[in-house]
Design goal:
Strand order of the largest sheet: 1-2-3
Bound molecules: acetyl coenzyme *A, oxaloacetate ion
Strand content: under 5%
Largest sheet: 3 strands, antiparallel
Distance between the termini: 38 Å
Number of strands: 3
Mean pLDDT: 97
Low-confidence stretches: none
Structural class: mainly alpha
Helix content: 40-55%
Length: about 375
């Protein structure tokens, strides 16, 4: 009864139709569809439709969700002002979290839970706008308003850089949104579900999730990986770097996963896009060299690359500064958060685990002047 499952390892909290992660085989299925196929063939908007409706859209339905997302990209004036005011001094993930929270103030029916997915899509459409705007303000550049004739990923790069991306760049960006979109009951999704289980509004649930993704054991690893690759500097330094980490029992960012016993299947997609955009990427060479050393030393222990190993190197090729990497992970994962929030609300029971009490009882209270 009182067995403690530290880190909730192996605990099954509910049923879900959203995503199957097969950690033994290294496969991901989004609503029954192979993630590998979707990452190559699909678009983020199509995935949003799939997660919402449990089926792929017709051509008209796909146009419909694209138009709907595009129409919801603009920020309320108050949130645009918040971003403009805070972007310089506030870390991007903190600002994204605060902006998601602030969006509740501009929804007259924020607490209405009749169609949580629709409300989440309104937030999800705006997250890239917040990110691009914050980046431009930090750089001392004029914000670029979103365009409704561009897809979700293409529009993000357009608002970030002020010019339309190439087809390869837009396709790589779209892939990153798909790759990071969903991954079962990970920490940030769990956090969203705990908040949703109290019947809090979706702004609260999404804000909880953004906050949870920030940590460097979860989404924040996208940024620590880049710091590590830059510190290593050259592929020839990978061996002594990994040797030193292993002998000091240090954790190497971008490796290890609670679910995978093999390489994370998303790595290959991030990697192939880096190769397409820049076959001479030095960061890619360093990441590959570190990977080879880690697999040789820790593969027996089940330590393999996770999705974050190559993500930063790809974001770099797309011109995204490192401080914004985790915000893009959040903007992508919002798809999964939304789907799980909807499932939670549809068949809800408040989340309320227990802790095993190991403290004392019966301590006699002594008034302060007698201590
Ligand atoms: C999108 C994502 O969130 S993916 C994960 C992103 N996070 C990272 O890349 C950070 C580095 N990785 C880690 O810290 C962990 O692997 C986590 C947080 C992802 C998973 O943690 P857990 O499932 O709790 O594994 P735990 O930390 O207990 O590690 C188990 C063993 O593997 C080792 N290990 C786990 N990850 C690593 C790593 N990255 N480098 C070296 N050793 C590792 C641990 O030292 C531990 O060894 P021990 O049994 O000898 O003490
Ligand atoms: O599933 C997890 O524990 C971590 C995660 O979010 C991911 O790998 O995308």
């Amino acid at each position: 009864m009182d067995e403690v499952k530290k880190g909730l390892e192996g605990v099954v909290v509910d049923e879900s139709r959203v995503c199957k992660v097969d950690g033994e085989e290294g496969k991901i299925w989004y609503a029954g569809y192979d993630m590998d196929d979707l990452a190559r063939e699909s678009s983020y908007e199509e995935l949003l439709f799939l997660l919402r409706n449990d089926r792929l859209p017709s051509g008209d339905e796909l146009d419909g969700i694209r138009d709907e997302m595009a129409a919801r990209r603009a920020l309320p004036d108050g949130v645009a002002e918040l971003v403009d005011r805070e972007a310089e001094r506030t870390a991007p993930m903190d600002l994204l979290r605060t902006s998601v929270s602030a969006l509740a103030s501009y929804d007259d029916e924020a607490d209405n839970l009749d169609d949580p997915t629709d409300k989440c899509l309104g937030v999800l459409a705006k997250m890239p706008t917040v990110i691009a705007r914050a980046h431009r303000v930090r750089e001392g550049e004029e914000p670029v308003e979103p365009r409704d004739d561009l897809g979700h990923a293409e529009n993000f790069l357009y608002t970030l850089h002020g010019e339309e991306p190439t087809e390869e760049e837009a396709s790589a960006m779209d892939s990153t949104f798909i790759l990071y979109a969903e991954h079962g009951m990970n920490a940030s999704t769990f956090s969203a579900c705990v908040t949703a289980s109290t019947l809090a509004n979706v702004y609260s649930s999404l804000t909880s999730a953004v906050g949870t993704l920030q940590g460097r054991l979860h989404g924040g690893a996208t940024e620590t990986v880049i710091d590590m690759l830059e510190d290593v500097g050259d592929a020839s330094n990978a061996e002594p770097f990994v040797e030193e980490k292993v002998s000091n029992k240090g954790k190497i960012p971008g490796f290890g996963h609670r679910v995978y016993e093999t390489v994370d299947p998303r790595c290959a997609h991030f990697r192939r896009h880096i190769e397409t955009l820049n076959p001479d990427s030095e960061l890619l060479a360093v990441a590959d060299a570190v990977r080879e050393e880690v697999e040789a030393r820790l593969g027996d222990k089940g330590i393999f690359p996770n999705t974050d190993l190559y993500a930063g190197a790809l974001y770099r090729e797309l011109g995204v500064p490192p401080a914004f990497y985790t915000t893009l992970f959040a903007a992508s994962r919002a798809a999964g958060w939304s789907a799980h929030i909807a499932e939670q609300i549809e068949d809800n029971r408040i989340m309320r685990p227990r802790v095993k009490f190991v403290g004392e009882t019966g301590r006699g209270y002594v008034p302060v002047d007698e201590r």
